[in-house]
Specification:
7 helices; mainly alpha; about 170 residues
Length: about 170
């Protein structure tokens, strides 16, 4: 009978959905997260190109490393083998390097719009939240939070709370 009580506690009728539906919901949420991260990577690449066009080179290597780290952390590849991850990293590095090189060569790169800036900040915030959930990544969380604060200051943007997000000291 004790087993019946434990089983009854997780029945779909009481929870409103099945385990399969729950897992599908998580999968959909992570696909949405991947889109946010992809937009963040695109924005970081464009921002680095803009910096290169202005001759402001000091942060470009950090942005290059961060774009690849984001792609690796989120597994933005269809091939989850070692080779697939290597090819993914090369693809993101190459796209970054091409954008920055073109901006250096021409001296032109479009400035980021408000939505691109928000995409970068949303991606960094999401990255910090996921690193927090993994645990033991405080150094990386702090680095991303500091970067987000620097970008917000540079862009004259205020931190916007998202509904349902908690405010943490380690957050941006």
């Amino acid at each position: 009978m004790d087993n019946e009580k434990e089983t009854d506690a997780i029945q779909p009728e009481e929870s409103g959905y099945t385990i399969s539906e729950y897992l599908n919901g998580i999968e959909e949420q992570y696909r949405a997260y991947e889109i946010v991260i992809d937009w963040c990577i695109s924005g970081l690449t464009a921002h680095a190109a803009h910096l290169a066009a202005q001759g402001r080179e000091e942060q470009i290597p950090m942005f290059r490393e961060l774009t690849v780290e984001l792609a690796e952390f989120w597994g933005l590849t269809e091939d989850y083998t070692h080779r697939g991850f290597q090819e993914m990293a090369e693809r993101y590095r190459d796209a970054f390097d091409q954008a920055v090189s073109a901006a250096r060569r021409t001296g032109h790169a479009p400035a980021l719009g408000k939505s691109e800036k928000e995409d970068i900040l949303a991606g960094l915030e999401l990255y910090v939240q996921e690193m927090d959930a993994c645990g033991g990544m405080e150094q990386w969380m702090k680095a991303c939070s500091v970067l987000a604060d620097q970008l917000r200051t540079e862009w004259g943007m205020e931190r916007q709370e998202r509904p349902g997000s908690e405010t943490r000291q380690t957050m941006m």
